[in-house]
Amino acid sequence: MTHRDYAWHRMDTRNNLMVINSILLFEGAVDMERLVTTIAHRLPNYPRFTQKVVGRRWVEDEQFDIHRHIKLERMQHEVSRAELQDHLTRLAHLPLEPDRPRWHMTVLDRVNGGHAIVFRVHHCITDGLGLVHVLNHLTDNNGLHGTTPSPVGHPHRAVAHNPVCSAVVRGLSWAKIGFHVARLSVLWPDAHTQFKAPMTGAKQLVWLPPLQMDRVRAMSKRMGVTLNDVWVAAVSGALRNYLGERGQRPDGRALRAAVTFNLREKANAFQLGNEFGLVAMDLPTNAEHPCDRLRLSSSRMTAIKRSHQPRATMAFLSLAGCLPTRLQHFALDLFTSKGSVVLTNIEGPASRRFLAGSRLTDLICWVPQAGKLGVGLAFISYAGQIQLALFVDTDLVPDPDRLMQLTYDAFEELELATQHAEAPQPAAEPELPGLVTTPS
């Protein structure tokens, strides 16, 4: 087990479980026998799904039984969206069994005229890109296949063989890594808002109907920015409006976010594990106009891409896995005190997928938070649509549905504001607190 994955393995706390929660919505009734047979045939291609953690090692679970990891819950009636959210929230509070492989599927048989699978995976197994690779391997591009996996892009047996820390430090000096880690550690804690209140561990998962990818892509092309820039700008607007509605001054100090930054080649996604950094970014929550927020988001994300901060934070996670548990948690609390929210952007399957003959209609994923962070927003694409999801500590966000609706509204506000706006001109922005602009 790499030190970095071991750090994620030990990162669970009473307030934050390091579990990636996702839900897959399907058309039609579930065929449990076919579903279990398909998963039992395909998932063992990734050894981590049949292995448990013993000490610092992945060890094959000699008692592994696929039926202990896939459970059917029969609903008494057709489940509404509100009921489904409550059901997912209940499951999200449950820790995964420590003496088994760290994943579980719960199948719900009467959801939206079809069925749903709640897929929960501990972060020590993989990150978002790795999980999408697993999903592609479990599914097919049509409904005709049974247990034989589609061979395109899938290894016969995925073996993780990354040397500890080598991918992180290759081409970088320890001096550079130390510089960026030290720089992050001395940042002032983030602005004191309700997002930085003490947490109780009571969580809520929410989502809204998906956005059409074409709308967001047209906006990004019109303004000469990336989809992720649009996402960051929209979230900034939603956070600003949410705080403003609660009487907090939105034009003061900007909120800081921990933004996930993928460092993995897609061709290596089958190796699983965690290959991403977390970058500290000042969100333009104190900019009033949507176009200004988009321009600032774009310039700051561009600066981050040119810096070593993503690799430095990934190196920090590797080093954290070498520390005693209490010291790791202390270091993590120090870093997460610098921000208020976690933002992640996951590129899901580009075309429709089928699992055991059933068509996957919607894919939703929630990002876990670590340390002192209690607000996580995720953006995942699937088959021409974008799904927005929010996972929060309800002591920090007592009305998560309102924040989710404001995020949806912020996309529409940004779309309207950019229809006649000019694309941002490249310019060197003055360095801001929390932003690393050292060129690579």
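^ that was protein a. below is b, sequence first then the tokens
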Amino acid sequence: MPTHQTARRPLYTETTTSQALYLPIAPPTLGTAGAIIGRELYSGKAFIYCPFSAFGDGLPGGNMLIMGDTGRGKSALTKTYVGRQIRLGRQVVVLDTKEQTEREEGEWAALGRAITGKAPVRFIPGGGQTPTRINPMDPAISGKRQIELVRTVVELGLGKQLDEFAGSALRLAIRQANRRAADADRVPVLTDVATALRSPQETDAAAKKRSREELLNDGLEASYVLDRLCGTDADASGDLVGMLDGPTSLGIDLDADMVVFDLTRVPSGGVAMTILVAVIAVFLEEVWLRPVCECGAPPAKHERLTVDTRSGAWQLGASEESGCPRYAQRKRIMVCEEAWHILGTPQLAALLEKFLKFARGYGLSCVFIVHHLSDLDDSAETAAALKMADTIVIYSMKVAEAAATVKRLGLPAWTAEHISRLRRGIALWKVGDIIYPGVQHLLTEAEQHLCFSSGSMTDSTASAPSL
């Protein structure tokens, strides 16, 4: 037989092919600054991740999406990651919608108490004995955002968008409610807006070239929606009673290292949950995300340093009051458990788009936890939110779900079968454009009892991997 027929032909590869063949050296590390996650199985190296430390070096933003089948380790990863980031000086807010029945509270409550010593901020329909409220009409929310938020509340309750006439009537009513509350030396609430919608002023009607009756009819439906949501003196059964129908509770400390909003008693998927999350998101944007240095001093307490006399460009330098040598925006993390009710609702996805799009300017990393992408619709708002997740963590899924996820996210075809074979506690990470096929999350012994969320289904002799 001729030699050329039996000789081994040379193997020609591209860089990406070579990386697939030699996985132990393929993915570069993310550096040594950040929170320890565990180990990268194919290289044996420690896996350290921090969106703030890795930002700009192949990672354009800090938003993260975590998904996978139930019981694969999503919540445990997020809790340990958050706890370790707090040790690095980060500040965290959690929207907890996942109840642990055996503890009669949300699954983030124990971790929050361990870190801050404070109970979660718990919202209960009807209010309970000690109601916790966030007021959409709170003066801390700027005028334009306040109008946008109240309109969102009405539209979510109505199930459709307001037309121009109704929107104009609502804006006038909000301004009137603020004026009347100021005259009475109190904080306005949503019921004030409902009252103003049913009692428009002649001057407002004339300014809009409408009769008073026409302006009343323009806003009448919106007033009924607010009555249904917030209740009235004759009917206290509104969806938002005890949660959004009064002044903001003084017990909400947004300066704590970790704030847990416990939403487990609010029906998932209902209008109350959707509206409550919308209000919390805007309240956090206006109050929690205010500029502050890592030293605790606001920008005004730091001196301005001119860096270019021709353009007048300047930056913030030292603070004599705190002794801080340079202004550094405090980094924050917002975690959304069971985020399908947020990303899967177009109005909420659009409302949170500002969080996601301008997260870099806020020094913010948003972390969304879902089971599968099939839980989310394919609306333009949801698609836009998914595109802003620069870090994606995928735990084991069934074959069909894995294939659908890979296709929707545009991942390489080989990852579909790989994802379906991942063991518990091991995930595929995509950080920027780099894929880490097997990252094993490890817990310390002290973290296990705070981060384990499957107690009702687990044998008491079972234990999680530890560092």
